[in-house]
Amino acid sequence: MSAARNLQSEYQFLCSICLDVFTDPVSTPCGHNFCKNCIRQNWTVTVQCQCPMCKETFNPRPYLRVNTFISEMVAEFRRSAQHQQVAKPGEVPCDICTGTKLKALKSCLVCLVSYCETHLEPHLTASGLKRHQLIDPVENLEGRMCTKHDKPLELFCKTDQTCVCMHCPALNHKMHDVVSLKEESEGKKAELGKTEAEIQQMIQTKRQKLQEIKHSVKLSKEDADREKAEGVLVFNFLMVSVQRGLKELIDTIEEKQRTTEKQAKGFVKELEQEISELMKRRTEVEQLSRSEDHLHLLQSFPSLKDAPPTKDWTGVSVRAPSYEGTVVRAVAQLEETLSKEMKKLFESELKRVQQYAVDVTLDPDTAHPELILSEDEKQVNHGHVRKTAPKKTGRFSHYNFVLGKQSFSSGRFYFEVQVKDKTKWNLGVARESINRKGEITMSPNEGYWTIWLRNRNEYRALVGPSVRLSLKSRPQKVGVFVDYEEGLVSFYDVDTAALIYSFTGCCFTEKLLPFFSPCRNDGGTNSTPLIISPVSLTA
């Protein structure tokens, strides 16, 4: 019996209960076969012992033994099935097998048929079939034949970039560059090798980007966790401070009330004692006045005729304590505590943004002709004379402005500018595409995110309209911080670590450049230059 037929009869070795090949097959008295364990379990759950196939009832339950003949047949079937593999999804099946399809071992380009090991045997033994061209099993054998000549496609026309048979060059591809499929395949393999290398490089690049993104997310989470922890500490401190301030306020008020109550209690006790004595005297006087004992009345009269001496209570009073200013003083104390904590926070924040310090220099090609730049391009002030400067499209023509050389289109950056002894100045950042000619309106809508000083102590943020800034002290050095992706531009008083102003919710779509204006020198009163200072971390 061939392996194919063995597989075709597979159903003969299936247990009708588990629908799988027999395991320890046993036979019932009625002649049907089951797995030993299957029939035992079946009889365990049924009321009567009967055959699952023909329903014949057995009483008593029969003793079942393994059927050695069927067991050996099943073993032989299993060995045959292992030797002759059944075609799995995606594998080429044998075209000759009927019923269960075995896996094809070879395909014949002459017969256009795929064969399993059993059906391939004639091609390996018969002399007439040995000359047929066998290849590894493939599907769609018809697609490997020339549709015009009904011959195998064995050549490749490089001129037409198509596969052809041995007869095609003589008829349809004369004078064309024709090579064997193997030769062309080797060339294509070399190209595929390059493509594979490119893809591998792309994969590597993508993996690096993936790791970069994951690392960024990790750092972001760490920053978020750190910020949350710091926020919890700060707000816990603030809540404790508020609760402590409230307790101290209540204790102060209650202490005043206790003092008042204690004083009043003393007065009440003294008055009650005097009233008691007066009532006693009144009783004695009343009794004496009603006495018919003339001798007793005359003898007692001298001591009872006058009211007993008592304290003069005319000027005595209990005044409610004054609570005026109590709450105000408590809030002022709390404000002082909060102010100290805010200073610590600003110092911490300034330290963080200073980590993003960049080296900034002034761009002479953008400077207004009346501005004077130092040789190191770190200082700028206003001169008295308009210089003859090379005409540049990026030069400011109307206002005393100058930009930094460095531009930024992502990430965070920070720089510091000394403004000491100046009465006027402008600082900030600007879009690369800002208008640099004629009249300029400075606002975020026009591409400027700046603050300025006028009249020595008038500070404004040029929001459009501008916003007056209330500063506790005059900044000597101003720090400028930008977070491009966050859309944030912040200004700091470096010496006091105080936040001056922040532009938030900005939408940056192009390069940003540092922006400076020392303003006019006003006859020498504003001649001090703006100086880009090296950044040193705050203590």
Question: For the CA atoms, what is the radius of gyration?
Answer: 53 Å
CATH class of the domain at 371-533: Mainly Beta
Low-confidence stretches: 1-8
Q: Helical residue percent?
A: 25-40%
Number of strands: 21
- What does the average pLDDT come to? 87
Compact description:
With 539 residues, the chain is an alpha+beta fold. It has 9 helices and 21 strands.
Please supply descriptive tags for the structure shown above.
single chain, 539 residues, alpha+beta, Herpes Virus-1, Jelly Rolls, 7-stranded antiparallel sheet, 6-stranded antiparallel sheet, 9 helices, 37% helix, disordered N terminus
Describe the 3D structure:
This protein is of the alpha+beta class and 539 residues long. It is 37% helix and 17% strand. Helix 7 crosses helix 8 and helix 7 runs antiparallel to helix 9. It is flat.
